[in-house]
Structure formats: C-alpha cells, structure tokens
C-alpha cells in the first residue's frame, strides 16, 4: 500500500516503515561515528520505542555494546491500518542490533502492569542474568494501577489560576492565545499517579527482589524544567507536580540502591519535538523559537545527541556524575544558557501569525513532527508501494 501521513490534531494516525527505519539508522550511524563508551553491559529501557527511550537504547547498544531489553506499548499493522511508529522503530532497532552482535529483546505490553514486569524479569534472569542500567522513559496519558485497578488519566493544566499565553497550530502556522483552566485536586492526584515516580519505584523494587538487578546498577528517569515562558503550564502545573514526585522517587531510590553501590538519577533533558510535547499548549511555539536560536548558534541537539552526551559525559564519563544543587543531571544546560533564553524571550514577544516562519523555526518543528512517524525523511519514496506488516525480531 502507499502510506501517506494522516493527522488528527497533534497525532499522526499512520506511520511509514521505511521512513522510521531510516530515522533509526541515522541515529545508529551517529553513535557509531562517536568514541565508544565504557558503560553498561545489560540495559533495560522501559518506554523504549520512541524519543529519548529509543535513543537511550541505541546509545547503550551501539555506543557501549550493551545487551538491551526494550519494553513498550505499540501496535502491529492490522488490515489497512499501519503499525505505530514505535513498532517500526523497534523492528529496525532489533534487526540492526542483531547484525551488530548484541543481544536484544522486545516485550510489548502495559509497562504499568504486574504481568509485564514479571515477564520482563523472567526474560532478564533467563537470558542476561542481571541488569546494570535501567532507563525509565514512560510517557502515557493513563495508567491502570496494578494493585487497586483504579484507572488514572493525566491532564496538562496549570495549578491555582487560569493560564493564558501564545500558542501555535504547527500545521497551519496560526499563532493564537491559549487559555487553560486550572486543574482540580483530583486531576492533580491522577496526573501524579500516571506521570510520577510510583511505577519507577515498583520496577526497581521488583527487579531487586527477583535478583535481576546488579548491586552497582544505575537507574535514570527523564524530566524537563524549561523556561519561565512555559512554567505555568508545565513546571508549575500538573506535569511539574508529577515531575517533583519523580525527583523525590530518585532521591529515595538513590538511598535504596546506594546501600549496595548503585545510583539513581533524574536527567533533565532539552525541549524536543515529541508526540508528548506536541500536545502541550505553548510548548510547540517555544520549541520553534528555541530551535531557531540554537541552530543559529550551532548548539542544537536532537534525542540521539542528547543521550550520547548523557551516557558519555555524565553517567559514564570520568569522575563523579555532575549534578546540580537538587541532585539533577542537567543535559538541558545548553538550552538554559542565559544568552539562549534571552534571545528566545525577545523573539517570543514579537511572534505573530504573520512573522512566525521568519522569527522561529516552525517549519523545522513541523518537519520533525512528521519524521517521528517516518515521513518527510530524505531518501524515501513515499509514492512507492510498501508492505505495512513488519515483524519485530526477538519479540517475547
């Protein structure tokens, strides 16, 4: 079939297998072109099929030569429906990892569930023995609690007061005002339950109890802080409250793992085009302005560049891992440079529908959005007939 992009708001409902494979291969080639990393040997990535999770798995396998287990919730092609982008990404990764000579396994299902945790741990004990790095990179709008059965849904809302600021429709280029009503107490509670640290803690507890975690293991979860422009809807909103819970979990895990020589961190990463960030009002316009400034200064990084720097310079670099006064790894350090933020703030004041393509890199944002799903990728013939039914090797 001929596969073209079909969008619904900030979601693309189709994905292109060859385009996704090309994007994965580009990331692999980037890592293979860099110095190798004396890093982990056996890695578990929870949330492994897109974005920072996928990039982490690529850096582990092709930068450090690690064996990997990827857990993700993606769907295969069915009838006239293509598979999800994460499915195609994982298929491409598994094939490349096999050729590279590293072990890799995929487990598809709800990472929040006891069933998938047990299945993953059984695989680790059978095939790898112990894990020495756990990456937690889950982004989900809802969670079913494995013990109580309660279903939680997250919301992207401010706390306390109504919030109004600029936003953009990255398909049309229209800049408008977005107004978001504050979250209720129950919405806040549910968002923390979905996006906070409880599930991360559960994964580590169960890995430890099963003897599947190395004594000196490292675990990392990902977060974002961002500039003052986005704080009301992000860092000081419901998502920020969930990230505060995630950071508290990191402190607790660091003490827990530290008793046997292990470590736990939250890595604060750069703002990037992801399915998650596209859903947050204000953020796509901010990222478009940020991209313009950082690209002009030669400081722009994508997921793979960020994760290679995280592994090579922070987690497994020489000496002690560099953290800020709150114990956070700051891979957003280039984004948050004062001179970068000053220029972005200046652009922000002037941004309108009429000048958005001139004052920001909105076209770059839009293109990267479609590349998440395998479209607008150089070297791919999108008029060609392709088979959407792609198998994931090593699927368990």
UniProtKB/TrEMBL annotation:
InterPro entries, sorted: Eno_Rdtase_FAD-bd_dom (IPR024906), Enoyl-CoA_Rdtase_cat_dom (IPR024910), FabV-like_NADH_b (IPR050048), Trans-2-enoyl-CoA_reductase (IPR010758)
- Pathway of this protein? Lipid metabolism; fatty acid biosynthesis
Q: Which reaction does it catalyse?
A: a 2,3-saturated acyl-[ACP] + NAD(+) = a (2E)-enoyl-[ACP] + NADH + H(+); a 2,3-saturated acyl-CoA + NAD(+) = a (2E)-enoyl-CoA + NADH + H(+)
Q: What is its EC number?
A: 1.3.1.44
At the top level, the lineage of the source is Bacteria
Organism per entry: Paenibacillus paeoniae
For the protein in the UniProt heading, the enzyme class is oxidoreductase
Alphabetical list of NCBIfam families matching this protein: EnoyACPredFabV (NF043048), PRK13656.1 (NF010177)
The Trans-2-enoyl-CoA reductase catalytic domain is annotated at 81-316
Tell me, in a sentence or two, what this protein's role is: Involved in the fatty acid synthesis (FAS II). Catalyzes the reduction of a carbon-carbon double bond in an enoyl moiety that is covalently linked to a coenzyme A (CoA).
Put simply, this protein is called Trans-2-enoyl-CoA reductase [NADH]
